[in-house]
C-alpha cells in the first residue's frame, strides 16, 4: 500500500511537470540495450538541444518520474531528506526552471505485465524506440509473445506526428513495427532495414607485448548514402545497434547525419556494458558485468571469437529471470563456449552449472573448466590466472555481482 501511494504521488508530480513544460519525449524499451541506447541518443541530441536522460537505470515506477523531475535520490540519506529533495526538484521544475530540457530521453523497463502501459498513460511519447525482444524477465511473463505485446505498447503509444524506431533484425519486433500507423524507421544489420550497418569491424588485438584497441568501425547505409562510422571507445555488435537507433532518433529531429556520426566518435557506454578496460599483467578486460541475457551474451561471445589474443578467458555468471527457459538457455551457453574453445572457462553461480555440464559433455571433461558458487570465491583465482596478452570477458546478471571480479582484475 505504501509503495502504491509513493508511485501515485510521483506520477502526479511528473504529470504536472510534463503538462507545464511540454518537453518532447524519446522513450526507450527492450529486453537488452536500453541503457546504452539511451546514452547514445543523449549524446546525439545533446549538441543541438537541451536534453536530459534518465540517470543510471532509472526505468521503473519511481525512476521515470524522478527523471522527469530532474531528481536523483540519495538513498543513504534519511527519509525526510529524500522527501524534501523530491519536493524541491518538483517545485523547481514546475515553477522556476527556465532551462528545463527541450527533450527528455527516458528508459522504460517492464518487469511485469502492465508496466509499459503505466508509463504511457501519463507520458506523451514523441519518439519510441524498441531495441529487442528476448527472454529477459520472462519469469514474470508467461510467453515471449506476452512480453512482446507489453514492450510493443510503447511504440503503439507514439503521438500521431511522432516516430517509432525498432530493431529490424528481431522478427517479433519487426512484426510490431510493420503494423504501426505512425512514421517508422527500422534499424539493423539485415537487408530491409532502413537504417543499416554493414562491414562491421571490431579492432582489438591483444598480444603479450601490446594491446591494440581501436573500437568499432562500420558503414552506415541510409537513403542511398553510405557513410563511415567509428566508435573509438566501444566494442561488439551490440553497440552498433545502439548507435543506429540513436542516429534514427536524430533523423526525426532533422539533425545532420555527419554531425551525429562525429558526436558518437568518442561515445563511451556506461560502466559494465561491453566496456573495454586495461587489465592487470598487460591484459584486456571486456567488462559486461552489469547484466546478462541470452541475446547479449551471444553478442559478447561473438566479439571474443573475432578478437585476436594470446589467450582467451571467459568468466560467466548466472543469467537471471529467464523463467522456464532457464535450463535450456544456460545449456546453450555451454554448447557455444565449447565451440569457441577458450583457454579457460570460469563459471559463477548455480544456474551456470548447466552450461558447465554441457560444455564438459562436448569437450570430454576439459581441465580448463572452473566452477564457483559466487564472485567473491572466484575473483582471486581469476586474478591469479591472468597473464600478459590475455583477453578476459566478464559477464553475468546483476545479482551475481560480477563487477567484483572486474574490480579485482582491472589495471
Protein architecture, described:
By secondary structure, this protein is α/β, with parallel strands linked by helices. The chain has two domains: 2-264, Mur-like, catalytic domain (UDP-N-acetylmuramoyl-L-alanine:D-glutamate ligase, 3-Layer(aba) Sandwich); 275-409, Mur ligase, C-terminal domain (Protein-Tyrosine Phosphatase, Chain A, Alpha-Beta Complex), CATH 3.90.190.20. 40% of the residues lie in helices and 25% in strands. The chain contains 14 helices and 16 strands. It has helices spanning 2-21, 34-46, 63-69, 79-96, 115-120, 144-156, 171-178, 237-252, 257-264, 294-306, 326-340, 353-363, 375-385, 403-409; strands at residues 24-29, 51-53, 103-107, 125-130, 158-167, 183-188, 195-206, 211-222, 225-231, 275-279, 283-288, 308-309, 311-317, 344-348, 369-372, 390-395. The strands form two sheets. Strands 1, 2, 3, 4, 5, 6, 7, 8, 9 and 12 form a ten-stranded mixed beta sheet that branches. The chain is globular, with a radius of gyration of 22 Å. It starts with a helix and ends with a helix. The mean pLDDT is 90.
CATH architecture assignment of the largest domain: 3-Layer(aba) Sandwich
Major sheet summary line: 10 strands, mixed
Q: For this entry, what is the oligomeric state of its chains? A: single chain
Shape: globular
Extended strand count: 16
Q: How many distinct domains?
A: 2
Derived from helix and strand composition plus strand pairing, the structural class reads alpha/beta
Computed Rg: 22 Å
CATH topology of the largest domain: UDP-N-acetylmuramoyl-L-alanine:D-glutamate ligase
DSSP helix fraction: 40-55%
C-alpha end-to-end distance: 47 Å
Amino acid at each position: 500500500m505504501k509503495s502504491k501511494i509513493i508511485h501515485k504521488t510521483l506520477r502526479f508530480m511528473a504529470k504536472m511537470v510534463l503538462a507545464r513544460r511540454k518537453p518532447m519525449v524519446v522513450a526507450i524499451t527492450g529486453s537488452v540495450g536500453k541503457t546504452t541506447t539511451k546514452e547514445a541518443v543523449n549524446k546525439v541530441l545533446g549538441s543541438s538541444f537541451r536534453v536530459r536522460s534518465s540517470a543510471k537505470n532509472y526505468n521503473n515506477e519511481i525512476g521515470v518520474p524522478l527523471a522527469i523531475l530532474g531528481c536523483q535520490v540519495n538513498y543513504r540519506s534519511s527519509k525526510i531528506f529524500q522527501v524534501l529533495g523530491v519536493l524541491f526538484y518538483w517545485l523547481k521544475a514546475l515553477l522556476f526552471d527556465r532551462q528545463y530540457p527541450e527533450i527528455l530521453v527516458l528508459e522504460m523497463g517492464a518487469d511485469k505485465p502492465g508496466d509499459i502501459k503505466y508509463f504511457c498513460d501519463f507520458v506523451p511519447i514523441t519518439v519510441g524506440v524498441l531495441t529487442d525482444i528476448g527472454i529477459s524477465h520472462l519469469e514474470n511473463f508467461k510467453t515471449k509473445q506476452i512480453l512482446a505485446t507489453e514492450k510493443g505498447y510503447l511504440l503503439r503509444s507514439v503521438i500521431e506526428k511522432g516516430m517509432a524506431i525498432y530493431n529490424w533484425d528481431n522478427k517479433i519486433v519487426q512484426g510490431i513495427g510493420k503494423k504501426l500507423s505512425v512514421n517508422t524507421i527500422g534499424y539493423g544489420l539485415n537487408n530491409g532495414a532502413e537504417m543499416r550497418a554493414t562491414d562491421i569491424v571490431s579492432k582489438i588485438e591483444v598480444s603479450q607485448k601490446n594491446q591494440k584497441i581501436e573500437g568499432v568501425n562500420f558503414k552506415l547505409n541510409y537513403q542511398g548514402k553510405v557513410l563511415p562510422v567509428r566508435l573509438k571507445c566501444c566494442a561488439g555488435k551490440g553497440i552498433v545497434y545502439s548507435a543506429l537507433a540513436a542516429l534514427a532518433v536524430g533523423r526525426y529531429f532533422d539533425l545532420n547525419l555527419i554531425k551525429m556520426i562525429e558526436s558518437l566518435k568518442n561515445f563511451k557506454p556506461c560502466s559494465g556494458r561491453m566496456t573495454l578496460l586495461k587489465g592487470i599483467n598487460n591484459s584486456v578486460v571486456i567488462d559486461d558485468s552489469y547484466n546478462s541475457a541470452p541475446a547479449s551474451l551471444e553478442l559478447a561471445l561473438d566479439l571474443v571469437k573475432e578478437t585476436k589474443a594470446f589467450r582467451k578467458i571467459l568468466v560467466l555468471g548466472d543469467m537471471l529471470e529467464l523463467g522456464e527457459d532457464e535450463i535450456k538457455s544456460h545449456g546453450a551457453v555451454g554448447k557455444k563456449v565449447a565451440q569457441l574453445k577458450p583457454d579457460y572457462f570460469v563459471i559463477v553461480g548455480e544456474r551456470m552449472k548447466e552450461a558447465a555440464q554441457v560444455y564438459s559433455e562436448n569437450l570430454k571433461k576439459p581441465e580448463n573448466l572452473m566452477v564457483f558458487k559466487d564472485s567473491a570465491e572466484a575473483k582471486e583465482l581469476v586474478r591469479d590466472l591472468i597473464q600478459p596478452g590475455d583477453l578476459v570477458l566478464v559477464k553475468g546478471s546483476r545479482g551475481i555481482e560480477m563487477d567484483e571480479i572486474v574490480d579485482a582484475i582491472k589495471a
